[in-house]
């Protein structure tokens, strides 16, 4: 969630140029009492049926998991500490052996399904969540003990120092080859930037009126050229322009906003060597240069604390699904986003479950506004027992977003949390109204209806993704419980 306005709480930024330093100071040392509400208290998670269903990789898996949540299908059920297991009758001659580690959570099953978790793991987890009395405590059988031991060994190895990469036969030659490849790519990207700048100038000069009738190739061809130029980030930005002329009223305004953001990226890349290091890193990410998780874990800024998992959203990116999981650090309110990609038939990482918390250390990617992170070390999942950090008013939340946008002008989605708002509907449009009467528009009717049901007509705390125009709610705190709001493709 972007920081509140004002280093001293006065409600205004000292100057736009201070945005980055203020954001980082806010994230590292928030003054006591800045958030309304105390740090979240925790206990071991008592998994709910909704939380388990949210782990399903797709709706079909969720339905199949519910079908398997019948104790009559199972034998040898048992549990101990954070583990549960059982054998489920299926189409094979032998029952499928299924086990859970509810602390992370993690899943194991002898079935051939590629989905994670599979329907058997979901079914067992649903029984544990909805009918815990049907699973007696027992000593784990050998196959469960072996699975848990292997997990513990992998965790021990990953926590230890990484094995050094084998040294090349000729280090100097290897370094020179790596530098040559980097120069070659930089040359391709620079040429692609010039080509795209010319295409963008032609688009603006010719006007926007005929864009809704343009064939798909009008957009896909320059996007493909950026892929050839090894600038996949620019390719994605061009590809997303294609949808805007068909997005309803006021589409020219939305298109010009995106065109302006793309133009800024192209002009910035032409001058990238003159930019400060954090902004260079941000712009390189926009263009499509990436750092491996291993490199970020080794060199990124480390932040340890108690992290609250507050929301998850999934969107389609070409042939991949992208999953964003949002976290806030309980004591400071610092936000983090864990990004995961998977091909269509591959599972996304289900281990960070909204409505839970964990003691963990995160490493942040270098950026003008550090948001994306990787989880380096983590403890078991714990229950969210108190309200999450949030801004007191809609105005404070929007001032924070403005400051974040000043630090990173290519920011597409920002986490936003606001305290004590009511879901309202007016002229078929949904919004969140705070105590001062200010409103935050909601991105869709479904989110408004779900929040209305969760609120029961009383003020609630809401967390979601803000795109500059509307909020997509991902989670809410009402009375004494956290509710997850699904956002997917």
Describe the structure.
The protein is α+β, with helices and mostly antiparallel strands and 489 residues long. Among the domains are: 49-155, no CATH class; 186-229 and 232-287; 387-484, OB fold (Dihydrolipoamide Acetyltransferase, E2P), CATH 2.40.50. The chain is built from 13 helices and 17 strands. The strands form three sheets. Strands 1, 6, 7, 8, 9, 10 and 11 form a seven-stranded antiparallel sheet that branches. Strands 14-13-12-15-16-17 form a six-stranded antiparallel sheet. The chain has a four-stranded antiparallel sheet with strand order 2-3-4-5, with helices on both faces. Strand 13 (429-433) and strand 14 form a beta hairpin. Helix 6 packs antiparallel against helix 9 (251-270) and helix 7 (217-228) runs antiparallel to helix 8. The longest helix is centred in the middle third of the chain and has 36 residues, at 171-206. The chain is globular. Mean pLDDT is 86; it is low at 1-42.
User: Would you list the SSEs in sequence order as H and E?
Assistant: HEHHEEEEHHHHHHHHEEEEEEHEEEHEEE
Number of helices: 13
Mean pLDDT: 86
Low-confidence stretches: 1-42
N-to-C terminal Cα separation, in Å? 23 Å
List the helices and strands and how they pair.
Blueprint: H1 19-28, E1 42-44, H2 49-54, H3 59-68, E2 74-80, E3 83-88, E4 96-101, E5 106-109, H4 119-130, H5 142-159, H6 171-206, H7 217-228, H8 232-241, H9 251-270, H10 277-287, H11 293-299, E6 301-317, E7 320-329, E8 335-343, E9 356-364, E10 373-378, E11 382-384, H12 394-407, E12 414-426, E13 429-433, E14 439-441, H13 445-455, E15 460-466, E16 471-478, E17 481-484
Antiparallel strand pairs: 1-11, 2-3, 3-4, 4-5, 6-7, 6-9, 7-8, 9-10, 9-11, 12-13, 12-15, 13-14, 15-16, 16-17
């Amino acid at each position: 969630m972007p920081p509140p306005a004002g280093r001293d709480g006065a409600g205004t930024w000292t100057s736009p140029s201070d945005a980055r330093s203020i954001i980082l100071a806010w994230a590292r040392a928030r003054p006591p009492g800045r958030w309304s509400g105390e740090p979240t208290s925790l206990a071991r998670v008592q998994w709910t049926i909704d939380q388990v269903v949210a782990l399903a990789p797709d709706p079909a898996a969720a339905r199949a998991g519910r079908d398997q949540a019948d104790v009559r299908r199972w034998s040898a059920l048992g549990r101990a500490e954070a583990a549960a297991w059982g054998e489920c009758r299926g189409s094979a001659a032998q029952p499928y052996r299924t086990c859970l580690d509810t602390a992370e959570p993690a899943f194991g099953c002898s079935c051939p399904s590629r989905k994670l978790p599979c329907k058997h793991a979901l079914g067992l987890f649903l029984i544990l969540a909805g009918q815990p009395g049907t699973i007696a405590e027992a000593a784990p059988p050998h196959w469960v003990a072996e699975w848990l031991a292997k997990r513990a060994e992998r965790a021990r190895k990953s926590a230890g120092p990484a094995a050094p990469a084998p040294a090349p036969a000729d280090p100097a030659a290897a370094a020179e080859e790596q530098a040559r490849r980097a120069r070659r790519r930089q040359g391709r990207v620079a040429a692609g930037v010039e080509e795209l700048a010319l295409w963008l100038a032609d688009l603006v000069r010719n006007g926007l009126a005929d864009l809704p009738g343009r064939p798909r190739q009008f957009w896909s061809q320059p996007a493909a050229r950026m892929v050839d130029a090894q600038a996949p980030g620019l390719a994605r930005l061009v590809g997303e322009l294609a949808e805007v002329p068909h997005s309803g009223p006021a589409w020219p305004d939305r298109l010009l906003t995106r065109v302006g953001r793309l133009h800024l990226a192209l002009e910035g890349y032409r001058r990238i060597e003159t930019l400060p290091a954090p902004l260079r890193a941000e712009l390189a990410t926009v263009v499509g240069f990436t750092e491996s998780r291993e490199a970020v874990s080794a060199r990124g800024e480390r932040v340890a604390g108690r992290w609250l998992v507050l929301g998850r959203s999934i969107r389609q990116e070409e042939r991949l699904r992208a999953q964003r999981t949002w976290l806030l650090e309980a004591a400071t309110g610092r936000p983090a986003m864990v990004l995961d990609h998977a091909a269509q038939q591959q599972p996304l990482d289900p281990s960070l479950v909204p409505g839970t918390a964990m003691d963990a250390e995160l490493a942040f990617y270098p950026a003008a506004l550090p948001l994306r992170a990787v989880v380096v070390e983590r403890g078991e999942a714990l229950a969210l027992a108190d309200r999450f950090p949030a801004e007191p008013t809609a105005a404070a939340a929007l001032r924070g977003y403005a400051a974040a946008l000043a630090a990173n002008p290519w920011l597409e989605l920002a986490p936003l949390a606001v305290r004590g708002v009511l879901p309202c509907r007016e002229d078929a449009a949904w919004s969140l109204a705070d105590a001062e009467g200010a409103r935050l528009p909601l991105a869709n009717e479904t989110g408004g209806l779900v929040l209305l049901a969760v609120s029961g007509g009383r003020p609630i705390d809401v967390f979601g993704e803000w795109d500059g125009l509307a909020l997509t709610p991902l989670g809410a705190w009402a009375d004494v419980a956290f509710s997850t709001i699904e956002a997917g493709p």
